[in-house]
Amino acid sequence: MSTSIISVRNVHKWYSGVHALKGVSLDFAPNEAVGLIGDNGAGKSTLINILSGAQPASEGEIMLEGKPVKINSPRDAMDLGIETIYQYNSMVPTMSISRNLFIGREPLKYSMFGLGVMDRKKMAEESVQAIAGAGLHLRSPDALVGELSGGQRQGVAIARAMHFKSKVMILDEPTNHLAVKETQKVIGFVRSLKELGITGIFISHNIHHVFECCDRIVAMARGEVVLDKRTEDTNMKEILDVL
Ligand SMILES: Nc1ncnc2c1ncn2[C@@H]1O[C@H](COP(=O)(O)OP(=O)(O)O)[C@@H](O)[C@H]1O
Ligand SMILES: [Mg+2]
After folding, report:
1. In the CATH scheme, what is the code of domain 6-242?
2. Which residue, of 48, 200, 218, 228, has the fewest CB within 10 Å?
3. In terms of DSSP H, where are the helices of 71-166?
4. Closest-lying ligand 1 atom to the alpha carbon of residue 45
């Protein structure tokens, strides 16, 4: 238990009348790629929203490396090393790749009036490194994110997680609306997180995608965990039967 990077303990979530999470407990190990699957409404995004600080749990506890933590905002999650990539990307299309990489964490230099000014030179230099480090081939860190393909945007988000040395990277349906080739790229990214020592939580309703890149599969249905197995110890049929 002490080796878990994140532990979720008996977490409940009520949305007025809806009991969206009914006592979920899960452990995520360092360096593990976990696929979280389930039908629409199973509670996957609700769980992830709690881990990423987008909304609070109604009840239960979250522990990071064995210590109880309060995740009250997306900023708290980022500071704890939890990075989340949403279905509809969190990037700002009208801003450059380098601005997007540093969004909310811009390095500052100081002007003579003592006001913080963004250190654009540092941002540009570090962006080039971060992008290359993520194995992305992009023209320039000054290109606008709006000009990138969906897969390239996911790549920038992954470069951001790597640059800020996130411990956990959550991807909520990152392959929705992506072309086949781009989807394969995202699946490759999930696989590569392992080598970087980052725990990946990959949410998808496509079982095939999860089988391709995850070490472990957690299935949720109606607000509960209904299956939790190593990928090699389960199969599509077993999972479809519990959903
Ligand atoms: N903001 C919300 N307000 C009210 N109900 C919600 C809200 N978000 C999710 N729900 C409900 O909670 C349940 C789980 O939803 P969700 O976590 O989005 O599932 P999934 O991501 O697995 O599709 C569903 O019944 C959904 O309608
Ligand atoms: Mg969802």
Report:
1. 3.40.50.300
2. 228
3. 74-79, 97-101, 120-133, 150-163
4. 21
Residue 81, both tokens:
């090393």
Closest CA to 28 of 182, 167, 131: 167
CB 38 within 8 A of CB 26: no
Instruction: Give the pLDDT confidence of 127-146 residue by residue, as tens digits.
Output: 888 888 877 788 888 999 99
Q: Which helix (H) or strand (E) element contains residue 55?
A: none
Calpha distance 154→178 (Å, rounded): 10
Burial grade of 232 (CB within 10 A; 0-12, 13-18, 19 or more): exposed
Which-ligand-closest: CA of 54?
1
pLDDT digits (tens, 9 = 90+) for 151-197: 788 788 888 888 888 899 999 887 877 788 888 888 888 888 888 88
Q: Which ligand is nearest to the CA of 42?
A: 1
Residues framing ligand 1 (Cβ under 6 A): 15, 18, 20, 38, 40-46
- What residue spans define the domains of the chain? 6-242
CA-nearest residue for atom 9, ligand 1, is 46
